[in-house]
Amino acid sequence: MGRQALDLLKQANFTALQSALGNYLLAVFKWAACQATGSPAMQAEAVHSFNDGSAQAAVFLGSVCAARKPNPSFPNGFGRLSNLIVLFVAIFMGINAVKTIQHGYQAIFLHPAATTVSGFWWNQAVLAASLLVDGYVLYQAMKDIGQEAESEARGIALIKLSFEKYHLASPETRLVFFEDLLATVAIVIASTGITLTYLDIFPWGDGLAGLIIGVLLFGIAVKVAWENIKGLIGFTAPVEVVDEIADTIMKVDGVEDVYELDVVQEGSYLDVDGTIELPEHMSVAQAEDVKYEIENRLKKIYPNIHNVTLNIQEDDALSRWGSREYGRLRRKRSTGKNDSFHSSHQSCEDTGTAAAS
Known about the structure:
Number of domains: 2
Domain Cation efflux protein transmembrane: 19-232
CATH superfamily of the largest domain: Cation efflux protein transmembrane domain
Structural class: alpha+beta
Number of strands: 6
Shape: elongated
Helix content: 55-70%
Low-confidence stretches: 322-357
Distance between the termini: 62 Å
Organism: Heliobacterium mobile (Heliobacillus mobilis)
CATH class of the largest domain: Mainly Alpha
Subcellular location: Membrane
Transmembrane segments: 81-101, 121-139, 181-201, 207-226
CATH architecture of the largest domain: Up-down Bundle
CATH topology of the largest domain: Alpha-lytic protease prodomain-like
InterPro entries: Cation_efflux (IPR002524), Cation_efflux_CTD (IPR027470), Cation_efflux_CTD_sf (IPR036837), Cation_efflux_TM (IPR058533), Cation_efflux_TMD_sf (IPR027469), SLC30A9 (IPR040177)
Number of helices: 11
C-alpha cells in the first residue's frame, strides 16, 4: 500500500503543489496587511491568493488520484476525478468571491476610509512581492503553453501565442495560466485603488478595487467550474488536435481516406472514434495491422489518448477529409489510388483553398 502511494506521488503534479504553497504564503502576508490597514483591496487580494492556492492544491490532489491505473471496478481509470475535485474548489472560490464583493460594496457605500501612511507602503510592498511571484509563475505557464503547442516562441511572441493557443494546453496548465493572469491584473488594480485613496483623489478607490477584484474572482470561478464540467461530460477536442490526428492516420500506408472522425476530450484523456477507408483487396489481417500502426502512432503524439476505436469500410472513391461538413466532396482521379498520401492530400488542400477563395 505504501509503495503504491509512493508511485502515485512520483507521477503527481508537484509544480501545482509548489504554486499552492506559494499562494498560501502570499495569502498570509496579504491578510496581515489587510488586518493592519483595513484595506478592502488587500482583503480581496488575500482571498484571491487563498483561492489560487486551494485550486492548485486541488490540481495536485487530482493529479495523484488520476495517476491510479484502471482496474476491473473502474476500467476507464480515474482521469475525471481531477475535474470533479477542481469543480468543488471552484464552487468554494465562487462563495469567497461573493463575500469579497459584499465587503467592497460596504467599503464604498457604508464606511469608506483612507489608508494610513504606514499602511500604504506596507500594502505596496506586499503587492510588489506578490507581483514578482505571480508574474514569474504566469511566464512559466506561458512557456508550458508554448511547449504543449509545439512552439519555440519567446518574448512578445510567446505572450501572443499563449492567448491564441491556450486551448491546446492541458487542463492544469490552463488553470495556472488563467489564475495567474487574473492575479497579475488584480495586483495592478489593488495597487491603483490603494494609491488613489492614499492621495485622496478617490476616497472610495480602495473599496472599488476590492469590488472589481471580487467580480474578477467570481468570473474566474465560473470559468474554472465550466471547464471542469466540460471535462466531466466530454467535449470535442480543439480543431488543431483533430486535424493532427487525422493527418497522422492518413500517413499510414494502406489508408485511403478518413470517412469520419470524432475526438472527444474527457478529463485529461482523449478518445478517438472514427471510420477509415481501406482498399477492397486488403485482407482482415492486413487491416488489423493498419489499425495497430495507427494506434501506436497516435499514442506517440498524444500519450494521453485513452482509447482508439476505428471501424473499417471499403474505399468509396470519394475524398472526404479536409471538409468536416463533407460539403466539398470531389471525385478522386482514377489514378489517385496509386499515388502517395502526400500528393493526394495536397490535392485535397488545394481544392479546399480554391473553394474557400
